[in-house]
Specification:
Elements (H helix, E strand, L loop, with lengths): L4 H7 L8 H9 L2 E5 L4 E3 L7 E7 L2 E6 L5 E7 L4 E2 L1 H6 L6 E4 L3 E7 H10 L1 H19 L6 H16 L7 E2 H18 L3 E8 L2 H8 L1 H18 L5 E6 L2 E7 L3 H16 L16 E7 L7 H17 L5 E3 L13 H17 L2 E5 L6 H15 L4 E6 L8 H9 L2 E5 L10 E5 L13 H5 L4 E6 L15 E3 L5 H13 L2 H6 L8 H15 L8 H21 L10 H13 L1 H9 L3 E4 L2 E6 L1 H10 L2 H19 L2 E7 L7 E8 L9 H6 L5 E4 L2 E7 L7 H17 L2
Parallel strand pairs: 9-11, 13-14, 15-16, 15-18, 16-17, 18-19, 19-20, 22-23
Antiparallel strand pairs: 1-8, 2-7, 3-6, 3-8, 4-5, 4-7, 10-12, 10-13, 11-12, 21-22, 23-24, 24-26, 25-26
Helix pairs in contact: 4-5, 5-6, 8-9, 9-10, 13-14, 13-16, 13-18, 14-20, 16-18, 18-19, 18-20, 19-20, 21-23
Length: 716
């Protein structure tokens, strides 16, 4: 199968550092050309302005010797480039290039190449370095143009990425490097630390002693930078006496140690000794911030480093300061726009991370538990791993809420256990102030780490205090924290890209509605304790919305509800029924083969289950059971059952993989087996097949299906 042009570009060393967007942008600037065997693309000495990349065929590079003979320097194979010297400076072609067989090439003109470099300077450097290395190797065979080419290449590289005076990287290069460095840190789950540095009172120093002395001091400071920091650190001059450094794979503690040495060494500079003026010592201030584990926000990293630098100056200068979260009294958000920005950041955070811990407050009340569970259910729409931290002894009246957690694959962690998981994000729910949060063994170790912290709360003023990171605080006027989760769900409905990406069909499931409604009702005592017009407005909005949704979702046997309280009681009853449904479904036809556990339930066996429980209960329990089967064998679990319907019922298949197994994207099963009516994500799929199409019955089909899947697993 022939590789696509983009695949070939991506495989080349010259373009390997480009991200998908940059590569697509460059590819759109290229023209595809076909040449027959024996065709000369250009002759030695011709003027040219085009770089060629060979997709198929073979190209010969030849030179004429002084005696008039043809000397073949090299043969170019697919996935290689040639003609690069002319793209740099429109110089004459240094060799003749001809096709040895039919060939297809990508052509990139000089003006398009330089337009790309101008828009993407870092990407341009990443392309030019391997290009120059290959060019140098070729030119060594001829001696022609080598000196000019190498000189031009080094000068261009220097101009593009360094500060003329100090020799450090320039701000432009730093800005271009940030996204890539952040991405690498996130993919490798390694820390990335930023340091912002100012020389204290440097403007005053220049005024008193002159620019020449100031320049001399700058060079001495740069020498200290190079001595203290490591070869892999990116040291950049931000402008004037401002510097910004990126330290990959370096903790804040290690960075602080390096910065303290730097500050001490700068304080030992003796240039001002003996000069007439009010200053006799050079000092510097440094702000340190570490990229939060769960965030890829470049802006957040820069903002925190800048705030840390400000904190260092406020503390008296001549010091290094790690960014510290400043706790302050909670206040309502100032505008809808501000709330929308925070909500968008939370959605971006959920999209980028996989393992979430949700924490409430000590001795949690109904809104705390409800907001934790509704937040967990919202996160599960993204197919993420979600854990709830709760007291081991929880009031029995919350049992139906624990059932909701269980049957929606929300892990329960107890507050008397040590947390061993590697969480990427923590959600604090309904917790008025830091000293009220739920505590657990080694909690300070986890909470003091760089894990990003999101806060959802409605307690304002008085002695309240923030727990979440500044850019992730959904703290606002509301009747309950659960109401804020409801707002998140409504906003998520409008996130078309996320909804499509995660195949989200129904945000407002019965259990999600019940969890949110429980919090709203519990905190307001059915609306009796609403204090402000705004709270009453939101309560009415959500009451009406959820009332309508619940009526639709519980319309069974023509039941009529006279009030929200009636619906609320019915929802509790339905959710408690999941235990009974689970017990019945687990009894039937267990099949176990290597790597896969399965439960298969035929039409006759499913009839009483479909009669007792609504469709949402059966679907929820089937997913949970498939999860449980997968974890039991460590690879994969499947549940197959005949859905309700008399004439031509469908067989529903739910397949999940265990948390420790990720070698197979389960969507591949649907693709390889050519199943039309199905979908899902890498860790879970579902599909439907009419029972009438299973010629040998459900059990035989299921056995055959498991063997085919096992064959796929054995080929990995």
């Amino acid at each position: 199968m022939k590789a696509s042009p983009l695949k070939i570009l991506q495989s080349m060393d010259m373009f390997s550092q480009l991200d998908k967007q940059q590569l697509n942008s460059l590819f759109k600037s290229m023209i595809t050309m076909d040449y027959s065997k024996g065709k000369t693309l250009f002759h030695e000495g011709d003027l040219g302005d085009t770089l060629y990349i060979l997709l198929t065929g073979v190209i010969a590079i030849t030179l004429k010797t002084p005696q008039g003979d043809t000397l073949e320097l090299a043969q170019i194979k697919p996935g290689n480039f040639f003609g690069e010297m002319s793209i740099f400076d429109n110089s004459p072609r240094s060799a003749t290039c001809s096709t040895l067989e039919d060939a297809t090439l990508l052509c990139l003109r000089s003006e398009d190449f330089y337009r790309f470099i101008k828009e993407n300077p870092k990407a341009g450097i990443a392309i030019m370095n391997p290009m120059l290395q290959t060019t140098t190797s070729r030119l060594q065979k001829t001696g022609a143009f080598l000196e000019d080419m190498v000189t031009w290449g080094e000068q261009a590289r220097t101009r593009a990425i360094t500060d003329d005076f100090t020799g450090l990287y320039n701000r432009r290069f730093l800005d271009e490097s940030l996204e890539g460095r952040v991405r690498q840190a996130q993919q490798g789950k390694t820390p990335l630390t930023m340091v912002m540095i100012d020389l204290d009172h440097f403007g005053k120093l220049n005024l008193e002693f002159g620019q020449e002395t100031g320049n001399q001091i700058l060079l001495e400071v740069v020498s200290i930078f190079r001595n203290v920091f490591r070869e892999d650190d990116i040291l950049a001059r931000y402008g004037g006496d401002e510097f910004c450094f990126l330290l990959p794979n370096t903790s804040t503690e290690k960075t602080l140690s390096l910065c303290n040495k730097m500050v001490r060494d700068i304080g030992r500079i003796k240039t001002l000794e003996g000069l007439q003026g009010s200053m006799n010592k050079i000092t510097a201030s440094a702000g340190i911030a570490c990229l939060p584990t769960g965030s890829m926000s470049v802006e957040l990293l820069i903002e925190r480093a800048d705030k840390a630098l400000y904190q260092a100056k406020e503390a008296g200068r001549n010091r290094a300061q790690i960014w510290v979260q400043q706790h302050s009294t909670k206040t309502a958000l100032t505008s809808i726009a501000q709330r929308n920005r925070i909500i968008q950041r939370i959605f971006d955070l959920i999209d980028r991370n996989n393992n979430f811990l949700i924490i409430g407050h000590k001795q949690p009340d109904v809104d705390c538990i409800s907001s934790m569970i509704s937040m967990g259910l919202l996160l599960r729409n993204f197919h993420k791993k979600v854990s709830l931290l709760i007291p081991r002894r929880l009031n029995r009246k919350y049992q139906y809420m624990i059932n909701i957690s269980r049957y929606n694959s929300l892990d329960i962690l107890y507050n008397d256990e040590e947390i061993q998981e590697d969480f990427s994000v923590i959600f604090f729910m309904d917790t008025p102030k830091p000293d009220m949060r739920e505590q657990f063994p080694r909690d300070r170790e986890l909470l003091n780490s760089s894990i990003i912290k999101v806060e959802v709360d409605h307690h304002l003023q008085a002695d309240s205090g923030y727990l979440g990171d500044e850019d992730f605080r959904l703290v606002d006027d509301a009747a309950s924290a659960s109401e804020l989760v409801g707002i998140l769900a409504i906003k998520l409905q409008k996130q078309n890209k996320l909804v499509k990406k995660y195949n989200i069909h129904d945000l407002f499931t019965r259990n999600f509605v019940l969890a949110v409604l429980t919090g709203i009702v519990g905190d307001t005592k059915m609306g009796q304790y609403l204090k402000t017009r705004k709270e009453r407005m939101y309560y009415k909005l959500f009451s009406n919305l959820f009332n309508d949704l619940l009526v639709k979702k519980t319309r069974q046997n023509s039941k009529n509800f006279s009030s929200m309280k009636d619906i609320f009681k019915e929802m509790q009853k339905l959710s408690l029924g999941e235990d009974e449904c689970y017990a019945l479904m687990k009894e039937y036809n267990g099949i176990s083969i290597k790597n896969i556990n399965a439960v298969v339930i035929g039409k006759k066996e499913m009839a009483p289950i479909n009669g007792l429980f609504d469709n949402e209960t059966v679907v929820t329990v089937a997913r949970y059971l498939a999860d449980e089967l997968a974890e039991a064998c460590g690879v994969m679990g499947m549940v197959a059952y005949v859905d309700r319907g008399e004439e031509n019922p469908l067989v529903q298949f739910r397949i999940r993989r265990s948390q420790d197994f990720n070698a197979l994207d389960l969507r591949k099963i649907i693709e390889v087996l050519n199943i039309g009516n199905g979908g899902g994500h890498p860790g879970a799929i579902g599909f439907r097949i009419p029972l009438s199409q299973l010629d040998h019955g459900l059990e035989v089909y299921s056995q055959d299906l498991l063997e085919k899947i096992n064959k796929m697993l054995s080929s990995l």
